[in-house]
Design a protein that fits this description.
alpha+beta, Phosphorylase Kinase, domain 1, Transferase(Phosphotransferase), domain 1, 4 domains, five-stranded antiparallel beta sheet, four-stranded mixed beta sheet, 17 strands, elongated
Length: 736
């Protein structure tokens, strides 16, 4: 922004948005309405640098561009603006200060810069995120198709510099095509002439014959798509134009990239797959590499059309190059992270995809049996957790495809943990690129050419960034795991309280039964066949009390487990996240600052970077705090899983104890002809009509009072003993 801002009426110059060989674009704001605009100007110095013929051509093109910017009104093309009458003074000023008294082109202002500036950010040295690549490719497809079909115009200068970004208040970005200075009308049967465009983006036929038509824009689309996906141009951009063109003539239709052989200078590799690091998911990468040959076909007469061996277009309207983009953009990729195998997974899902298919894929990719896998959905997921009716499409979250730092979205849509008694974490070795491996082991004193240095630094950056993302996924997964486990344990709380209430009721019933036995022994008011039966009932009371004791321990264990996940797992996961993620363990920021713009880098430096990376990775994988957390949380999960069954078993046994106690009381009542003489009978008769409701939202049927419908005393005792064994062997509850 100028130190003394230029003001014309209500309009203030904010700065220069961009400059080229012939012109520049300026940024203005209306201080009254806050309207922002961009104005495009021809540099005044151009008059002394061009011939009269060139000036006439430039004026004609300028007038045509002005017309088209006002004519082309669609979301993916920067629109021209006609200011209202109140801006007459401002418009007059612009024209009076413009070369040849030409009108200044006034455009809508896009606040996010252009795609070139986006690619030049350090974090994008290996290309943009898949979400951004999709957005750019989709927008470019709409804009170019609109120009070709509706406006019958060939743009002729497609490049990242001419795709500008407008960031919306909701965080989304619109990508818009601009700069029609080289565009020309192109009827279907007309071949345009003159070599235009930026060197690496114009089509081969421009060099061959100087003649081309709309398919020249397809080539530029392919180059842009490859560059935004990888951060580099596809065809040996460091070579001279002649060498590039000679090698392009040699490539077949399926070739999408050419690289120089770093072992044999001036020999080249022709690739059908992307040979450098990128951020694309495997399912989308497969479709993307299938689409690229459509755009990068050397034969311009066939470019943009499906080959005879490809699938039929199925009657879709428009050239295949556009309809295939439409198909590609519809692909939905479910992103997952397997914590135990330390691996990111991607799986294409459709409405017909089943959980069985997804589980089989995960089992094949991780080596863990799918029945032992536990899915954790990040906080804010539309589906809180999996149910029997959950489908893979339910797990997919459209807005989470944007996993950039700015979005604050989770790094993946699903975390996977393996829940077994001896859960093992198998972190795979990082995929060290062969080119880096070669130069740090065999060429310690070799002087690297700039293109090779740039390639090595780019590949090292991709390795560091990939490992950083894995660290982020693991730590975020641990945090979500602890929170999810807390939620599940809390869901047991009403049932645990119901068991506790049932336990209290059983204690009262046991105490009442003891009183009845004492009364029967001392006063002979109740029926006892013989003293042996009385002794047997006393033994039953003792067994029933054992059940109560161990149920109390189960309840205490539940409360202890809940406290543990809150005070240990959740707290530890937060501390680990803050400590490790906040420290940038691979020093990526330092790497970007020290090496991305370096003129020269030695093999010895690369070896040192690799060594420090390996040490940092080993320290992270073997970190004691992380091991303690993951092992502790796994054990907590196992205890929780057993608690669910144990609480249910405890509740059933308490119900059985209650039924048996009531049955014993009924057996102790006097014969029917003495009912009216026994006051105690009235008490027991009232008790026999009681129904037991466990409360707290968990309801069971009223307990059966029929002695023949009750469990036998032997079965109740057996049940109690089974609880004892379960608690001692599986729950690790101390008898003390």
């Amino acid at each position: 922004m100028p130190q003394n801002p230029l003001r014309v009426g209500n309009w203030e110059l904010k700065g220069i948005l961009g400059q080229g060989g012939f012109g520049e674009v300026r940024h203005w704001i209306n201080r009254t309405t806050n309207q922002e605009i961009a104005t495009k100007h021809i540099k005044g110095t151009i008059k002394n640098q061009t011939s009269a013929d060139q000036q006439r051509t430039l004026i004609t093109r300028w007038q045509q561009e002005l017309k088209w910017t006002l004519q082309f009104q669609m979301p993916f093309i920067v629109a021209g603006i006609s200011l209202d009458d109140n801006a007459g003074e401002f418009v007059k000023y612009l024209k009076s200060h413009h070369i040849w008294d030409l009108p200044v082109i006034i455009l809508e202002y896009c606040n996010g810069g252009d795609v070139r500036s986006l690619l030049q950010r350090p974090q994008n040295v290996n290309g943009l995120l898949e979400f951004e690549v999709r957005e750019i490719l989709g927008s470019l497809r709409q804009a170019v198709d609109f120009l070709h079909t509706t406006c019958r115009v060939c743009h002729r200068d497609l490049k990242p510099d001419n795709i500008v970004i407008h960031r919306l208040p909701n965080g989304r970005s619109l990508y818009k095509l601009t700069d029609f200075g080289l565009a020309r009308a192109s009827p279907e049967n007309t071949i345009q002439q003159s070599v235009v465009g930026t060197r690496h983006y114009y089509a081969p036929e421009v060099v061959d014959t100087g003649k081309y038509k709309n398919t020249a824009d397809y080539w530029s689309m392919g180059i842009i798509a490859y560059e935004v996906a990888t951060g580099v141009l596809p065809f040996i951009p460091h070579q001279k134009a002649f060498n590039i063109h000679v090698n392009l003539q040699k490539k077949n239709r399926d070739c999408i990239a050419i690289t120089e052989n770093y072992l044999e200078p001036n020999s080249f590799h022709f690739h059908t797959e992307i040979p450098v690091g990128h951020h694309l998911s495997l399912p989308w990468l497969a479709r993307f590499t299938k689409w690229l040959p459509l755009a990068l076909d050397y034969e311009y007469s066939q470019r943009g059309a499906l080959a005879a061996t490809d699938e039929v277009q199925n009657g879709l309207p428009g050239p295949a190059i556009f309809t295939e983009i439409d198909r590609m953009l519809k692909i939905k990729v479910l992103t997952l992270f397997s914590a135990c195998s330390y691996k990111r997974l991607e799986y294409e899902v459709t409405p017909s995809t089943t959980m069985k298919q997804l589980n089989s894929f995960i089992e094949r990719e991780t080596g863990y049996i799918w029945q032992t896998n536990y899915y954790v959905l990040p906080t804010g997921h539309p589906h809180k957790r999996l149910t029997k009716s959950t489908t893979p499409m339910d797990l997919y979250v459209e807005k989470w495809c944007d996993n950039s730092e700015e979005s604050r979205n989770p790094p993946v849509m699903v975390y996977i943990f393996n829940i077994t008694d001896k859960c093992t974490y198998r972190a795979q070795q990082p995929k060290m690129p062969n080119v880096i491996r070669h130069f740090i082991t065999h060429s310690n004193y070799m002087k690297l050419e700039k293109w090779l240095k740039d390639h090595l630094i780019s590949e090292m950056h991709h390795l560091l960034n990939t490992e950083h993302e894995l660290v982020k996924m693991l730590l975020c997964g641990f945090k979500e795991y602890a929170l999810t486990l807390e939620d599940e344990i809390l869901e047991l709380q009403p049932f645990a309280k119901a068991v506790e209430l049932k336990k209290d009721m059983c204690c009262g019933a046991i105490q009442q039964f003891q009183l009845l036995l004492t009364d029967a022994q001392e006063q002979q008011k109740l029926y006892l066949p013989d003293s042996g039966e009385w002794q047997s009932n006393l033994m039953k009371v003792s067994k029933y009390k054992e059940v109560i004791t161990f149920v109390e321990k189960v309840i205490n264990h539940y409360e202890s487990t809940l406290r543990g996940v809150r005070s240990v797992s959740i707290k530890e996961s937060q501390e680990i996240n803050d400590t490790i993620l906040g420290s940038d363990i691979y020093k990526i920021k330092d790497f970007q600052r020290n090496y991305l713009n370096r003129v020269d880098v030695t093999c010895e430096e690369l070896a040192n970077i690799s060594l420090k990376f390996a040490q940092a990775r080993h320290a992270f994988i073997e970190d004691i705090k992380i091991k303690h957390f993951r092992d502790g949380t796994n054990q907590t999960h196992l205890r929780y899983a057993k608690l669910k069954d144990t609480l249910k078993n405890a509740h059933e046994n308490l119900m059985a104890v209650q039924r048996q106690l009531l049955a014993h009381q009924l057996e102790m009542l006097p014969s029917a002809n003495r009912k009216h003489e026994q006051p105690m009978y009235q008490l027991n008769n009232a008790m026999s009509r009681l129904s037991f409701d466990v409360g707290n939202g968990i309801h069971e049927p009223a307990a059966s009072l029929d002695a023949f419908d009750s469990l036998s005393a032997e079965n109740v005792i057996a049940k109690a003993l089974s609880i004892t064994q379960l608690l001692e062997s599986e729950m690790d509850i101390d008898r003390d």
